[in-house]
């Protein structure tokens, strides 16, 4: 396993990070989830990412049980706050002081730990003054319940404003967690340059585009039995956008020859691709089987030649999404 520094902080994380969105507590049974976490640990992964909203808190609980007995100081545990994890009240969501301070305590209970290494704002809250949000995060850090602060799916300008407030409050905002893959590059023109300037790293999710970049979904064919695309409780909705374009699926099949050329599986190629971006500290992988973890970690430390990167761009062509304005649409405006 290779390790990268997160932002300009002193925290190093495994460049392959294990995440449990739409798996633990929902898509896979607990014994399978436990096996995947053991596989991640055996592969040298030390960094684990979750969120309070995943499976309404169950994902945090499963991860906490799976990591029980491990040396806490040897792990980096990340979680997030914004969406309702439980309850339907007006203060059960967003980034107001009440929700943040109550949510960190609930997350720590579910995870079975005294602190998280990184506490992330899961979306931007248009209904709460940013000053209030950052002051609440500062109190979380000063209480010892989190070491660092991050954000997820924030625009470049939102990150800049939060970073300035964090600096004034003498806390460290060191990470951004956006979607990023060969197919989804909306962060490249604005978020990445801003973060490079500020000393903020990307921890990217969906580097394999929900499994589409593995090549197992073929144009004109039904999704394989047992795949994510067939599991309405485990992410079929998230992957559907990619499966409706046979031209795209055909181009992805053409990547197989490029992966073979690099001596990689298609999944490894996809993970290695995001890690070529120097502003990316880690790629988050998920798994429903330990074998998937063992495959994906082989992307750590891989260098892709410029000619190969160019060939990938030429193959995917105009199927790549690059519009930076999309990020702003991912944070809801609550009534």
TrEMBL record:
GO terms for cellular component: cytosol. Belongs to the shaker potassium channel beta subunit family. This is Aldo/keto reductase. GO terms for molecular function: oxidoreductase activity. Pfam families: Aldo_ket_red (PF00248). The keyword NADP applies. Residues 15-314 form the NADP-dependent oxidoreductase domain. It comes from Phytoactinopolyspora halotolerans. SUPFAM superfamilies: NAD(P)-linked oxidoreductase (SSF51430). It comes from the Bacteria. InterPro entries: K_chnl_volt-dep_bsu_KCNAB-rel (IPR005399), NAD(P)_OxRdtase_dom_sf (IPR036812), NADP_OxRdtase_dom (IPR023210). PANTHER family: HYPERKINETIC, ISOFORM M.
